[in-house]
Amino acid sequence: MDSTCFRLHQLEAITNNFSEDQIVGRGGRGDVYKAVLNGEEIAVKRLHSMQGLDDKDFRNELRKLNKIRHKNIIRLIGYCHDTHKKCMEYEGELVLASIQERLLCFEYMQGGSLEKHIGDESSVLDWTTCYKIIQGTCEGLNHLHNGQEKPIFHLDLKPSHILLDNNMTPKITYFGLATCVASTEEEYQTETMRGTFGYMPPEYIDKCIVSNKFDVFSLGSTIIAVMAGNMGYRRYVQVSPSPTKFIELVRKNIYIFHEHIRLLPILLVYFCTLSWCTVIIREINYPNFACRKRRPCIEHIVRELEELEADIKRITSQPPDESKDSILQMGSNPYHLQLQHLKDITDNFSDARRLGSGGFGVVYKGVLRNGNMVAVKKLVLSTLKSQKQFENEGDLLMTLNHPNIVRLLGYCYETELIYRPYEDKFVFAQDTKHLLCLEYMPNGSLDNYISGLGTLEDSVPRDIKPLIPHLW
């Protein structure tokens, strides 16, 4: 259904002649007024009277939004493009001047822009709401790229262009820079660069190249802002290439309801979604920061979201004890695990469960309630060098998915406050635990057979996976 063409006097009436009291937002291109039309609250965006570029933006935004209908895209209600004469004083004389008024009317979003809910350090929203916003933004962007007859590239996605309704449902807005393309595979070069630094990908800044990966990079930067605040990108770069450190950093700042902590399935969902978001921004923004061809497309991201939702639905429908183990049997993305759970499945890291040791870690057999087994690798020699090696191993395994490389199921990067003796007295000290949870390999390492500690017999399955030695 096409949007309504309003007369200027109609919009003047419902905004009290564009009263200052009804302004709910200001921007570089115009002001936004709150109004009531036929009993429905709406937002009236009045563009500043600037010729040329802004008129092009107005027509562009109107054309793009006129046909789009999606729960995560702002709904255009109507518009007004009016030119009239007004008697004005100019250089001491009265002249008749042409005044252009360009206005767009949208559904009113009670939650304001996402930008208002993000502080320097983190979002002031609880994680459940943050994840809902991330999920909805992904779905809205996927609709733009894949749900139209001709794909639409937004080209200016950022927190200030994501609005929230009274249920905190996100809706992508502002399509002044958006462009239609023949297919999502198309890429082209622009003559001028427009957008917001921090949300523009490197290939656009360097060579003005536009593709479907432009919006994906902007999405990654937006997710970082939601998770780690306005200063999040700088902090993300500081802890790269370690997603485990980034998750720990986010966990210290993001708000979750205390009552949720007592509900195990909800806590598992918290860790699953937090881990998924960290893996996604790693795929988008690191390590292939400048390589758009290896950046995932939005369709791939939404597909992973759907798989995650199916896994979450399954584990939250199980009894609490079974939910703990289910997190270790989910899809390809590793998840953050609680230290206590790893203690439980390894009998508190008992010697009886010990499988082997290496230069800086010990590997234990973990037994799940359903009888399945996993391998839990624990850092025991905690030096700066060993911590770095351990983190590198976890971060590398996060990006690998191959039948001949041992699979990382989860990890634990948890800091405890312990009471310990120091110089003839007891003091509180921080103790950070580093653990990796890997698929269990019942036949051990190849080294056992080569060194003569075992023999290769016909009974050994042919599909024993060769392991990279440093993993064990």
UniProtKB/TrEMBL annotation:
<dbReference type="GO" id="GO:0004672">
    <property type="term" value="F:protein kinase activity"/>
</dbReference>
<dbReference type="InterPro" id="IPR011009">
    <property type="entry name" value="Kinase-like_dom_sf"/>
</dbReference>
<dbReference type="InterPro" id="IPR017441">
    <property type="entry name" value="Protein_kinase_ATP_BS"/>
</dbReference>
<protein>
    <submittedName>
        <fullName>Cysteine-rich receptor-like protein kinase 28</fullName>
    </submittedName>
</protein>
<feature type="domain" description="Protein kinase">
    <location>
        <begin position="18"/>
        <end position="336"/>
    </location>
</feature>
<feature type="domain" description="Protein kinase">
    <location>
        <begin position="349"/>
        <end position="472"/>
    </location>
</feature>
<dbReference type="Pfam" id="PF00069">
    <property type="entry name" value="Pkinase"/>
</dbReference>
<dbReference type="GO" id="GO:0005524">
    <property type="term" value="F:ATP binding"/>
</dbReference>
<dbReference type="InterPro" id="IPR000719">
    <property type="entry name" value="Prot_kinase_dom"/>
</dbReference>
